[in-house]
Amino acid sequence: MRLAHILALAAVCAGASLLVARYLTAISGAAQRQRAGACIALDPQPLGVKAPDFERPDLEGVRHRLSALRGKVVMLNFWLTSCRPCVEEMPSIARLQRMLAHRRDDFALVTVSVDQEAKVVRTFLEQHGFGSIPVLLDPDRKVPASFGTTKFPETYLIDRSGTIRHRFINKRDWDGPAALRCIDSLM
């Protein structure tokens, strides 16, 4: 009789544990959707982790550090000239930069090209009229690897404290209303 009670109690505990696990999973999913908030239309992956710091040169050889942008919302985009979705996304990034140029104290756009040669990047930007887009060079792909990037383009929205709030894999329409709402939600 005692063994039957122990087995019944174990079954009740197992069932209760399963219900608690399902409840916690549902809450976690709801919390991620809530954190995505204004960005949900862009299908982000909410993260909430500190952005790895890095330092890389721009096309003129001047070195820039991500941590120097603390206090601003940063849009960090990894790309390369031979990536078709990257090329398709670049016009909307250029338009976004022009649209938010008046918010230089609040917003920074940083793109990191993983092309092997600066000349290729410079030529691409000039041919397409994207010369004003800030580009850092990382031919060794160490910076994207430190972020966990495996596909291009990949974009991260980083809040003022240096925390990655959203990750976007593949191209997006960065100058559309949904993107502007998303960026504004972090300002």
Write structural notes for this entry.
With 187 residues, the chain is of the alpha/beta class. It has one domain (39-186): Glutaredoxin. Helices cover 42% and strands 22% of the residues. The chain is built from five helices and eight strands. The protein has helices spanning 2-36, 84-99, 118-128, 142-147, 177-186, and strands spanning 45-50, 55-57, 63-65, 73-79, 107-113, 135-137, 154-158, 163-169. Strands 1-8-7-4-5-6 form a six-stranded mixed β-sheet. It has a two-stranded antiparallel ribbon with strand order 2-3. Strand 7 and strand 8 form a beta hairpin. The relative contact order is 0.20.
Attribute tags:
187 residues; alpha/beta; Glutaredoxin; six-stranded mixed β-sheet; 42% helix; 22% strand
What's the structural blueprint in terms of helices and strands?
Blueprint: H1 2-36, E1 45-50, E2 55-57, E3 63-65, E4 73-79, H2 84-99, E5 107-113, H3 118-128, E6 135-137, H4 142-147, E7 154-158, E8 163-169, H5 177-186
Parallel strand pairs: 4-5, 5-6
Antiparallel strand pairs: 1-8, 2-3, 4-7, 7-8
